[in-house]
Structures are given as structure tokens and as C-alpha cells.
Specification:
The termini are far apart. The chain has 23 helices and 14 strands. Helix content is 54%, strand content 16%.
Length: 626
């Protein structure tokens, strides 16, 4: 209604007149048929709502017009409401002028309210547009910067594996080190931009507390050793085995703080202390029910400390203590750290004394936890040179030549034949011609992007079976979620590492591994108790009923089907009282539910070893159940 009224011209005048008449007529009818018993009592009060409504819908002039119409009705047509005369004394005329004056005030207030509402609506639309522009800018920034870094870091990794001369290898290592530093800076700038734009969202998962914090001793082992420092990790006994938190962001926070402590400490120690506050508080927090703890993390060092002046601005972006710029850094680490902790509803405080050291304290409240951690116990370690892919045809779709060439060079020594396409349209034409075993497509391309290419492929009966791997430079959560909702076989984030590409390919293409040690490992850790019931029947089920399903996974590993396969194996193990089979099935379920592709691939490779182990235990029984 506001938009119609504010659109100038003669139509606006007629609308105002109609609104004024309509409001007065409605008030008059209400007075006649519902409030007639009042006769002359509170006559004016019944018309105030009509004036207010007219002013709200049509503005000040419409409200004024409705009040004048009301006065005319009262003066000349009061007999319509009652036979008792109304305008008979001087006081009645004074009441009329008071009514007009009040109506003017009411119309002014209504006009002001209407304009404020209109301004608020416009401001909201502008803010939403600004946020949309920020999101688009961040996505474009990520794409434009990460895309060339894909080639820089990718080719540096290929060179490092092929160069033998020590001096040339040092050159390549310098390129890789500088490239990683640049990526860190890029990620920091994008992170702080996303936080300020309100676009950074946390992604929670359960993490193994002790493994997570102990990992920092490995990460910083070389730096600590080079400087002759001690890196101490102290985890209080009451800290649960598992906490529910954003693992990537907590790692980023600690990486910044521990990295700074090591950088600014020349002798002594750096200490990570993890303990709890408000242990096991049951209740409901932020819509979640259960038991909650407050996690307290302290980062303590014996370093150079901070001046009082610098302590006041330590969390400001791009600030460094005077005289410390020679140690490197951008001054973004602590700014991002504080914002991330605030995003977790936490707090960060510190105490620092010049030349004596600093202690940072992080308090993260309302953290849910588990007392036990279910692990797969697997780390998928492999050397790409040990992987021998069978003959396959792949289409690489990307509008940037260097990206296509990078994939071609990575897979040059394999049995994979690659055809290149500059966009989705060309990729579809090639796919229709070749019917390849796999398509790897960039998400952002001209003419036809990755989403459009996938949709078109899935509609084609001839091509809908082809797995499609998406790769993108985007680090925005909503774009990752959009990719996850589509039927892509996997997702690669630029810059793409050789190992990451191989893992994605191993998920959809048949291959053989030349790593005999890995095969021996797969067999050695599969044991049973010897108390299995109907062992021949169990082996028969694994070799006949389930083996066909397992063989299909050599070509593709759909997460949903692997989860169902794991459930069937687990139930079979429980039925036959085979611990190893039930445990194997449960590990497959856990790996599929957490989308741990590396663990899934390794577990699937162990399936024949499971069967072989059962056959061995059948030939050499430990005990028999009566």
C-alpha cells in the first residue's frame, strides 16, 4: 500500500480521497449499528481510529481530509446516527475544533511513523544487498586468488618430487614455502573479511581431545627444536576424551597463539594447558539438551612479553609491537583469533610482562562432550607412485588452461587418458562422444558452469552414470553445502594437492596398489576370538551374499551404499558372534557417517583379509563354544 501511495501522479490523489472516505464511512457505520446506544456520548472518540488509519495508509493529507469529512458529517448529518441534536452549544463547537487539532497531531504522528517504516524497509533492503555484494566479492576474491595458486603450488609439488639436484630442490622448496605463506595470508584476509561480513559459520564435530592437543607437539617440533625451547602440553585428568567443537577453527586459534609464543620466545618454554570449569552441568543451552562443560585453554610462554601500550591494541588488525616486524607476520593472527573465539561465545584474556612472558587464557563455554571416543584406528598413508590406475578416460573441464594442464601433468605417467574442455558446454559434447569413466569440472565456468553440466549429464540416459568430481576455489560454507547437495562424486578445493587428487580418483576409478607393506598390514591386524558360531556359514555369507556388493565398490564408493554395507556386515558379525566382523562393519559405518573417504578406502581394501583371517582361524581354532 505504501508503494502505491508514494508513486506520484493523479492516481495518488484519488487514492487518498478514496481512503479518507472509506475510513470515515466504516467509522460511521460502526457508530450507527454497533454504538448507537451511546447517542451523543464520546462522539468524537469513535472517529479517531478512522483518522489514524487514513493517515497510516495515505499520509498526513489523507488523515486531515478524513477529519474534515468527519466534522462535516457531525455538523450536517448527525441525524443519521440519532435524533438527539449534537451541535447546539458553544462547547460543542469548541469540542469540534479540539477534535480537528487532535486529528492534525494524530496525522502528523502517523505520517512520521509511516515514513520511518519506509526508511527502515529501504535500509534493510540496502543492507541485504550490501551483504549479498560482500558474499559475492569474497567468493570472487577466493576464486581469483586461489586459481593461480593452484598452478604455482601444484607445479612446485611436482617439481619437488622430480628434481634430484640439491640446490634446485632448495629453490623448489623456497617456492613452496613462499606459496604456503602467501596462502596463509590470503586465508587470513578472507577469514577476517568473512567475519566482518557475518558470513563465517562454525562447523561442529566430535574430536578426540587428547590427540588434538598433543598434535601441536608434532606440528611445532622442528621450530621448537631449532630454537632450543620446550613445548609442554598439560591436559587435566578430568578433561573428557571427546568434545563437540569446530575442530578447524580451534586448530586455527591455537596455531596462531602457539605460533606467536614460539616466534617471540628465545629461551625457556611454551606451554599448552587444558582444563575445565563448571564440570558436567546438565541442562538446556542454546536449544541443546545434555551435559555441558566450559573448556579453559591457557597458552603460556617465557618470551619477550608485550609493552603496556601494545597490550591496548593487541587484538587490532594489522598491528605489531614496535621492533618486532623483523620477525615477520601480518598482524592479523590475534585479530582473527579474538573474532573466532567471540563467534564461539567464548572469551580471551591475557597477562603479559615485558621480558618475562605472556599467558593467554581462552574460555569456551557450553561445550558438549562424550566420555569415550569411537575411532576407526586408521590413517590412510600412501605414496601416489605406488598407485597403478587401470586404463580410464577422463574429461577435465576448466576455462583456465594452466589448471587443465596441471591435471594432465600430474597424471601423465598413469594409464589415464585425458581430454580437455574449456567450459561445460564443450565437456558435455565430449562426454556424449566419448562416454568417459570420469569428469572433473570446475564449478565456475562461462557458458555452462559445473552445476549446469552435472544437471544436464544426469538427465541424459546415456551419460547419467558418469561420476563427476567438482573442484572449486570457493571457501564459503554455503557454496560447499550447495555442492554437497548435488550428486558430485567428490570435491577438491584449490590449490589441489597431488595426494588429494589421487584420493578422489581412487574413490571412483579402479586401481592396484604396489605397496606390499600395506597389504601385509591389512591382514596382520584382523584377528578373532575363536568363539565364532557357525564359522562356515559366516564365511559363505561374506563370500557369496556380500562379496558382489563389495566388488562394486572397486569402481565407485557411494556413501549411502557403504553405510548400508557396513550395517549388513555388522549384523552378520553380531549374529555369528564374530568380534572382528562386527567391529569391521561398525568401522565402515563410522567412516561413512563422518564422510572419512581415506578410512573408507582402506577399510574396503581389508575386506578380503577379513575373510582370509576367518578361514585361518577356522583351520586353527582357539576354542569352541559348547
Amino acid at each position: 500500500m505504501i508503494e502505491i501511495i508514494t508513486s506520484g501522479g493523479g492516481k495518488k490523489v484519488w487514492q487518498r480521497i478514496l481512503i479518507a472516505i472509506l475510513m470515515v464511512v466504516i467509522a460511521s457505520l460502526l457508530r450507527k449499528y454497533f454504538l448507537g446506544s451511546l447517542e451523543n456520548k464520546v462522539a468524537w472518540i469513535t472517529f479517531y481510529p478512522a483518522v489514524m488509519a487514513a493517515a497510516l495508509f495515505g499520509g498526513f493529507l489523507t488523515g486531515l481530509l478524513s477529519s474534515i469529512l468527519t466534522c462535516l458529517i457531525v455538523i450536517y448529518f448527525w441525524s443519521f446516527f440519532t435524533t438527539v441534536p449534537f451541535m447546539v452549544s458553544k462547547a460543542d463547537w469548541i469540542g469540534l475544533f479540539v477534535f480537528l487539532f487532535n486529528c492534525i497531531l494524530v496525522s502528523i504522528l502517523a505520517e512520521y511513523s509511516r515514513k520511518q517504516h519506509y526508511k527502515a524497509t529501504i535500509a534493510k533492503e540496502q543492507a541485504e544487498q550490501a551483504n549479498l555484494s560482500k558474499s559475492q566479492f569474497l567468493a570472487n576474491m577466493s576464486h581469483e586468488i586461489r586459481t593461480p595458486m593452484n598452478a604455482v603450488l601444484g607445479y612446485a609439488e611436482l617439481l619437488s618430487a622430480s628434481v634430484q639436484d640439491s640446490r634446485q630442490k632448495n629453490y623448489v622448496e623456497s617456492i613452496m614455502s613462499s606459496g604456503r605463506s602467501l596462502m596463509t595470508l590470503i586465508n587470513d584476509i578472507l577469514d577476517i573479511s568473512k567475519i566482518e561480513a557475518g558470513k563465517l559459520e562454525l562447523e561442529f564435530s566430535y574430536i578426540n581431545t587428547h590427540s588434538f592437543f598433543s598434535e601441536f607437539q608434532k606440528i611445532f617440533a622442528m621450530k621448537v627444536c631449532d630454537k632450543g625451547l620446550k613445548l609442554i602440553v598439560e591436559i587435566a585428568p578430568d578433561v573428557p576424551s571427546v568434545i563437540y567443537i569446530d575442530e578447524a577453527r580451534l586448530r586455527q586459534i591455537l596455531f596462531n597463539l602457539v605460533g606467536n609464543s614460539i616466534k617471540f620466545t628465545e629461551k625457556g618454554y611454551v606451554k599448552i594447558i587444558v582444563c575445565l570449569q563448571n564440570i558436567s552441568v546438565a541442562g538446556t543451552r542454546q536449544g541443546r539438551e545434555g551435559e555441558f562443560i566450559d573448556v579453559l585453554i591457557e597458552i603460556e610462554d617465557s618470551g619477550i612479553g608485550m609493552t603496556e601500550d601494545f597490550q591496548k591494541v593487541v587484538f587490532n588488525p594489522f598491528t605489531q609491537q614496535q621492533g618486532q616486524t623483523k620477525l615477520g607476520g601480518t598482524g592479523l593472527g590475534l585479530a582473527i583469533t579474538k573474532r573466532l573465539i567471540t563467534l564461539m561465545n567464548g572469551t580471551i584474556t591475557f597477562k603479559s610482562e615485558l621480558n618475562k612472558g605472556t599467558v593467554f587464557k581462552i574460555l569456551i563455554p557450553d561445550v558438549t562432550f562424550k566420555s569415550e571416543f569411537e575411532e576407526t584406528g586408521l590413517e590412510f598413508q600412501f605414496n601416489p607412485s605406488d598407485i597403478d590406475f587401470e586404463r580410464a578416460n577422463i574429461i577435465i573441464a576448466d576455462d583456465i588452461l594452466s589448471n587443465r594442464k596441471y591435471f594432465v601433468d600430474i597424471l601423465a605417467s598413469t594409464n589415464i587418458t585425458i581430454r580437455e574442455a574449456e567450459d561445460g558446454e564443450m565437456a558435455f559434447i565430449l562426454a556424449d562422444e566419448l562416454v568417459p569413466d570420469l569428469i572433473i569440472t570446475d564449478i565456475g565456468m562461462p557458458r555452462m558452469n559445473g552445476f549446469e553440466l552435472l544437471a544436464r549429464l544426469k538427465k541424459d540416459e546415456k551419460l547419467k552414470h558418469i561420476p563427476v568430481i567438482a573442484y572449486t576455489a570457493s571457501v564459503m560454507k554455503y557454496q560447499k553445502e550447495q555442492i554437497a547437495k548435488n550428486d558430485f562424486a567428490s570435491l577438491l578445493i584449490k590449490p589441489v594437492k597431488v595426494k588429494d587428487l589421487y584420493i578422489a580418483l581412487m574413490k571412483v576409478l579402479p586401481y592396484k596398489s604396489n605397496d606390499e607393506a600395506q597389504k601385509k598390514l591389512a591382514l596382520s591386524d584382523v584377528t578373532d576370538t575363536g568363539d565364532t558360531e557357525d564359522l562356515p556359514g559366516l564365511i559363505e555369507s561374506l563370500e557369496d551374499d556380500l562379496f558382489t556388493a563389495w566388488k562394486r565398490f572397486s569402481l565407485r564408493q557411494p556413501i549411502k551404499e557403504i553405510n548400508q554395507f557396513g550395517q549388513m556386515v555388522n549384523k552378520l558379525g553380531v549374529k555369528h558372534r564374530s568380534d572382528s566382523v562386527a567391529d569391521y562393519g561398525q568401522k565402515l559405518i563410522n567412516a561413512s557417517e563422518s564422510f572419512n573417504i581415506e578410512s573408507i578406502l582402506l577399510l574396503l581394501k581389508k575386506y578380503p583379509a577379513i575373510i582370509e583371517s576367518l578361514k585361518i582361524s577356522g583351520r586353527n581354532p582357539v576354542s569352541n563354544r559348547p
